[in-house]
Amino acid sequence: MKIWKRAAVGMAAWSLVAAPSLLASTQVQATNPAADHTASRISLLDVFVPPVTSPTAKSVWTAGQTVEVTWDTADPPQHITNSKGAIYLRKGDRTGPMLDEGFDILKGRQEVVVPDVPPGNDYRIVLFGDSGNFSAPFTITEGPTGS
Questions:
Q1: If we measure between CA atoms, which residue out of 33, 34, 31, 28 comes closest to residue 9?
Q2: What is the C-alpha separation between 43 and 27, in angstroms, rounded?
Q3: Which of 19, 27, 89, 125 stands the most exposed, by the fewest C-beta atoms within 10 Å?
């Protein structure tokens, strides 16, 4: 799992932290005396990036079907900046529509209804909470009434 850390002052500054054990050793220092006042107000926020575990590359969804999206919630950071999730459908390089929002990101699963979209094998789920995380590409087939 990857955890992103950002400074919560002005423009967000991002740095990848490869292991949670490194979080405790991350420090923010002012680079000049005039910035000391700002540096004292900087707080680091943990950004949770849980990997999507379902759908997988072998998944086949049907338009109109209720399905479950799942993600790995093992080892979340202590202070998550945004605990409310949103799930979007993505086809190719376009994201939308939103399938659900406002659920607890630490729940690790959420049921959604597959929208009536054109059949294809290049769909992905995008899970938003602290950040966006993509599923593997999967297939959506035509529902009983057609798309």
A1: 28
A2: 10
A3: 27
What is the CA angle 33-37-38, rounded to 5?
Answer: 105
Sole residue written with tokens 């597959």: 114
Residue with tokens 């919560």: 8
Going by C-alpha positions, the residue among 21, 17, 20 that lies closest to residue 4 is 17
Percent of the chain with pLDDT over 70: 66
79 CB-near residues (< 8 Å, 6+ apart)? 45, 46
**Residue 56 half-sphere exposure toward CB, CA atoms < 13 A:** 2
The three state secondary structure string of 33-76 is HHHHHHHHHCCEEEEEECCEEECCCCCEEECCCEEEEEECCCCC
- Specify the amino acid at residue 54: S
User: Tens digit of pLDDT for each residue in 46-64?
Assistant: 677 889 999 999 999 999 9
CB 74 within 8 A of CB 53: no
